What we know:
Blueprint: H1 2-12, H2 14-28, E1 42-45, E2 60-63, H3 65-71, H4 76-81, H5 88-98, H6 102-112, H7 114-117, H8 120-124, H9 126-135
Antiparallel strand pairs: 1-2
The structure holds zinc ion (ZN).
Zinc ion is lined by residues 33, 35-36, 38, 63-64, 66-67.
Amino acid sequence: MHSRDAVFLEDLCPKLRNRRWRQSIHRHTNHCCIYCGKPSESIDHVFPLSRGGMSVTENCVPACLSCNGLKSDDNVFDWYRRQRFYDPRRAMAIRAWIDSDLRLAIRLLEWAQPKQIQSSSSLLHGESESKSEDKKDWGLRTA
Ligand SMILES: [Zn+2]
């Protein structure tokens, strides 16, 4: 009975919640597509909804429309390896992301694309900055 109530309450304000959550996902990569590094215009489900993937942070990555459309329901790693923009660091980042290790994912993405993810100054003393990034908006997972 209690869990039913909780689900119901979340359903009351899904829009705002959803929007905030989506924004937080884009912020993790500084609004860059996790696959190719172009501006992220959408959220991609790593494991597609049609195959039982869930709308939780671990399964949702920022993606440009092109990658999101191209990938469709393929296995993400099979698909990604075939792309011209394939970068093993990004592949590792995707794996870290779906393992809930956002912090590692962000570091790998910084490594793959230093200029766009972080300014050069924060790369020099990056540790403290990425820590504060970690705390906010992390973990909007469904119980
Ligand atoms: Zn892309």
